[in-house]
Design goal:
The complex is a heterodimer of chains A (242) and B (400). With 242 residues, chain A is of the alpha+beta class. Chain A has eight helices and four strands. Chain A folds into two domains: 56 residues; 170 residues, OmpA-like domain (60s Ribosomal Protein L30, Chain: A, 2-Layer Sandwich). Helices cover 48% and strands 9% of the residues of chain A. Chain B has two domains: 196 residues, de novo design (two linked rop proteins) (Up-down Bundle); 175 residues, Glutaredoxin (3-Layer(aba) Sandwich), CATH 3.40.30. Chain B has a five-stranded mixed sheet. A two-stranded antiparallel sheet of chain B has the order 1-2. In chain B, helix 4 runs antiparallel to helix 6, helix 9 runs antiparallel to helix 10 and helix 9 packs across helix 13. The longest helix of chain B is centred in the first third of the chain and has 28 residues. The mean pLDDT of chain B is 92. Classes of the chains: A alpha+beta (242), B alpha+beta (400). Chains A and B meet through helix 1 of A and helix 1, helix 3, helix 7 and helix 13 of B.
Chain lengths: 242, 400
């Protein structure tokens, strides 16, 4: 290699080195600049509220179609007035209370419970009696343990027309209590009192018509009439956020 | 044997640019997540392919402790892809230098390049082994980097080989100074993007405590499952669905990183299956209620049943989609008749219902997994990419 060629080669090498170094530095600066802009961009987004942040559902009690404003209004009034919604010593509502608090006619009151036809059950009693038979216990257990997302369990006890008003009032009260005592036995739930709403209507408010014999009853194999269907306690979870 | 001076340089340049592209994708994914929002992730063999929501292996790699350095002192850590980004930039420039000079490139430069091309290959081999052995998954973007590194090594070998074939004029020689300078340049080039990244990362501390609290102070005695780690130091509450893939990945991360053993976990089962969970209109994970009941029935072996469900998750999910009977048969086959009977017991249904009511009483989001330290909920992003940093801030004893 001549001296001229050698000098030329050396100059080429230097030029190539300079070009590569220049491009290398430029590339590194570009890459680093990109990284910086990505991080800075993320930092800016971090302190900028998202215009459309994806909404996440929040866990809550069930709320189904029959929870109309009217239905909830009546039940809420009953809950508050019958000592369920707060830590009150008072438990349950007698007929006059229900009439006053619900501010609703007999038919309208029963109409409210119509959507609970499949969810609830009618536990029947012998005439003048308040003890649960095996079929009654079984139906009650079935209904109680099928809680799903409900918060409140309603017990609406009644008595048939035969007998005096005061006697039937007391009888329906005892029937409601029988349900409650059985739940205490099987539920093993320290918060039972906060879940169960007791109403006893005697024979003076919202009597059931014979149509209710078609609902799920504990004595579906026996004759059912206007008298038999009211010797009962209707029980159901209510899938409403009250 | 392997080709001439230009050929190896061309291969090296292509390998470097390929590596640069994959490393840039990976870094971009990391940097995007610093805003604590949801982002798709690049996970494709095709350079330049757009990010996708179907990128589980790449997410697993990203959330793993091996994807970044200093994860406990910097939210998300410093991703190792940044070092690759800088290194491949250097290799690209050096390849260009060798390409421009071809057979007139100094002997020392070719030898240096051949030797230096081993470094990314060794790092890639290590990461490949970690992916396979520790994570059990291979991320496509990572594989892209591994391929680029392997190609770079091949080009280095080709370069060495080309030296033996040369009959032309001898190459100019360099002293020791130039290789040392190149090595220094390689080191600096590798470090600069990482240093700039670390210096620019926003302060995430104010956001760590912004994701809500439990409404109730404590679960009632026996209400939830207790999974106490062997060296538990921190009470934690988790909401998990045994058929949720994210829960599986999260649980495995906690176990693999030794975090689970440091937690005294109360587990609230939260199956995303409308069969038992009234908060959903349709089942997201059909059969999850049944598997959740199996976990409850596990008793002292609840953790084993849960981890079995995670391990067999794909099969169980398929069985759940087929029928309840198929799913119960799998449970019976693995855990026997007693546990299978327990799954069908009304008491178990009531217990699971209590777990779900615990969630609704506390107004927690309908999503899994969720982690609470005390009453405070960890944000989703703090329980994945920012987990170690968040723990170092809120429960440092867990990482000791």
């Amino acid at each position: 290699m001549s001296g001229l060629e050698s000098a030329g080669a050396s100059a080429t090498a230097k030029l190539a080195g300079a070009v590569a170094t220049g491009i290398g530095i430029l590339s590194l600066a570009t890459v680093t600049g990109l990284v910086h802009s990505w991080v800075r961009g993320a930092g800016e987004r971090l302190v900028t509220p998202e215009a459309e942040r994806p909404k996440v559902a929040v866990a809550d009690q069930a709320e189904v179609q029959y929870c109309t404003p009217r239905f909830k209004e009546v039940l809420e009034r009953v809950l508050h007035s019958c000592g369920l919604a707060a830590d009150e010593t008072r438990r349950g509502c007698k007929p006059s209370d229900v009439k006053t608090f619900a501010s609703i006619s007999d038919d309208d009151f029963n109409e409210l419970f119509t959507p609970l036809k499949d969810r609830g059950g009618v536990i029947q009693f012998d005439e003048g009696m308040d003890d649960l038979d095996e079929a009654g216990k079984k139906l009650l257990d079935d209904k109680w343990f099928a809680r799903k997302g409900a918060r409140y369990f309603f017990v609406v006890a009644r008595a048939s027309k035969s007998g005096t008003q005061s006697k039937n009032r007391a009888l329906s009260h005892r029937r409601a209590n029988s349900v409650m005592f059985h739940l205490k036995e099987v539920a093993n739930d320290p918060e039972l009192e906060k879940k169960v709403g007791l109403l006893w209507l005697g024979n003076e408010f919202a009597q059931l018509s014979k149509e209710y014999c078609n609902w799920q009853t504990s004595r579906s194999d026996q004759k059912c009439d206007d008298e038999a269907i009211n010797r009962s306690a209707f029980v159901s979870w209510v899938d409403c956020r009250l | 044997m392997f080709g001439g001076s230009r050929t190896f340089a061309v291969v090296a340049l292509i390998a470097s640019l390929l590596g640069l592209l994959f490393a840039a994708n990976s870094t971009l994914d990391y940097a995007s997540h610093l805003d604590r929002r949801l982002h798709d992730v690049h996970c494709s063999f095709i350079p330049g392919a757009s990010a996708t929501a179907e990128a589980e292996p790449c997410r697993v790699a990203m959330y793993s402790p091996y994807s970044a350095l200093f994860k406990e002192s910097l939210w998300g850590g410093v991703p190792i892809s940044l070092f690759a980004l800088g290194a491949f930039t250097f290799y690209a420039a050096f390849s260009l230098y060798l390409l421009l000079l071809a057979e007139r490139a100094p002997l020392g430069a070719v030898r240096f390049f051949s030797l230096a091309s081993v470094i990314p290959f060794l790092v890639s081999a290590l990461m490949f082994a970690i992916s396979l052995l520790k994570l059990g998954q291979l991320c496509k973007t990572c594989i892209g980097i591994y391929i680029a590194s392997a190609l770079l090594l091949v080009s280095g070998l080709m370069g060495l080989s080309s030296l033996g074939n040369e009959a032309a004029a001898p190459r100019p020689r360099t002293g020791l100074v130039m290789p040392l300078a190149w090595l220094l340049a390689l080191g600096l080039s590798s470090l600069v993007p990482a240093v700039v990244y670390a210096a620019s990362v926003p302060d995430e501390r104010p956001f760590l405590t912004q994701c809500g609290e439990l409404k109730l102070a404590e679960p009632k005695q026996g209400e939830l499952l207790t999974l106490r780690g062997a060296r538990a130091v921190q009470p934690a509450l988790m909401f998990e669905d045994p058929l949720c893939p994210t829960c599986k990945a999260f649980h495995e991360r906690l176990v693999n990183e030794g975090i689970f053993e440091r937690l005294d976990t109360k587990l609230s089962l939260f199956p995303l299956d409308s069969e038992c969970n009234w908060m959903l209109n349709e089942p997201l994970h059909p059969g999850a209620c049944i598997v959740a009941k199996a976990v409850l029935c596990g008793g002292d072996q609840a953790r084993q049943v849960l981890e079995w469900a995670y391990t067999e998750q794909t099969e169980l999910a398929n069985a759940g989609k087929a029928s309840a009977g198929a799913l119960k048969a799998k449970i019976r086959q693995r855990w026997g008749d007693t546990l299978a009977r327990c799954v069908d017991d009304r008491k178990t249904e009531v217990r699971l219902n209590q777990h779900l009511h615990f969630a609704s009483d506390n107004s927690v989001p309908v999503s899994t997994p969720q982690v609470y330290l005390g009453k405070r909920r960890l944000c989703d992003e703090d329980s994945d990419i920012g987990l170690r940093y968040t723990l170092s801030q809120l429960a440092p004893e867990v990482l000791k």
